[in-house]
Design goal:
Elements lengths: L6 H7 L2 E3 L1 H19 L4 E7 L3 H9 L5 E11 L8 E6 L9 E9 L3 H11 L5 E9 L12 E5 L5 E2 L15 E3 L6
Parallel strand pairs: 2-3, 2-5, 5-6, 6-7
Antiparallel strand pairs: 1-9, 3-4, 8-9
Helix pairs in contact: 2-3
Bound molecules: inosinic acid and magnesium ion.
Inosinic acid binds next to β5, α4 and β8.
Length: 185
């Protein structure tokens, strides 16, 4: 698979960080591994709208066991260095989780605040098990200790967009990841 895309986007927003081929190769590996780990189990995969939709769509198609999928949506208010902001659910899951095996899939874990908040919320619903999978893990900026069972890529401390990740709501539809340089947009 080729990483080239609308040429006009390249120079404007920054260099390619992970190509489409690199992402797809890793997603296929994760799908295989998760399928082996959950074979024979009632698995529901959960994501937060909207950043995770591309990853979750590819991951689930790389899996070889039957799974259910459900989504949450959240709004974050006023994150500051002091408060880390407040997370509110703006859309809840459609299905109960009690007694089911849950895989919570994230696009990126940065400070860990969002993941921690949602994980705590999911645990209250008494799933049989709860594991975490993230496409991107940026441990250097972590505030809350979180150790995902499945990690696509460990990434350094720079902002990235594409493959679902946005800057002010844009660039989610890039099929690869770009190291975002706001000065160049
Ligand atoms: P956390 O609560 O600090 O872990 O932040 C997680 C959320 O911040 C992600 O779900 C993204 O929406 C956003 N985020 C963090 N880093 C990036 C990035 O490099 N690009 C795009 N969004 C990001
Ligand atoms: Mg975002």
């Amino acid at each position: 698979m080729d990483a080239s895309a609308p040429a006009s986007w390249h120079g404007e927003i920054g260099p390619i960080f992970l190509t489409e081929a690199q992402i797809q190769e890793r997603v296929t590996q994760l799908g295989d591994q998760i399928s082996q780990d959950y074979v024979g189990k009632d698995l529901v995969v959960i994501g937060i709208l909207k950043g995770v939709i591309f990853f979750i769509a590819d991951l689930l198609r790389a899996m070889t066991i039957p799974v259910a999928i459900d989504f949450l949506a959240i709004a974050r208010y006023g994150p500051t260095e002091q408060t880390h902001g407040v997370v509110n659910l703006t859309k809840d899951l459609d299905e109960p989780l009690a007694g089911r095996h849950v895989l919570f899939v994230e696009d990126i874990i940065d400070t860990g605040f969002t993941t921690h908040y949602i994980t705590r919320n999911l645990r209250l619903r008494e799933p049989a098990s709860l594991n975490l999978c993230t496409l991107l893990n940026r441990p250097r900026r972590r505030i809350i200790d979180i150790n995902p069972a499945y990690i696509g890529f460990e990434i350094p401390d720079h902002y990235v967009v594409g493959y679902g990740l946005d800057y002010k709501g844009r660039y989610r539809n890039l099929p690869y990841l770009i190291k975002f340089e706001p000065s160049q947009q």
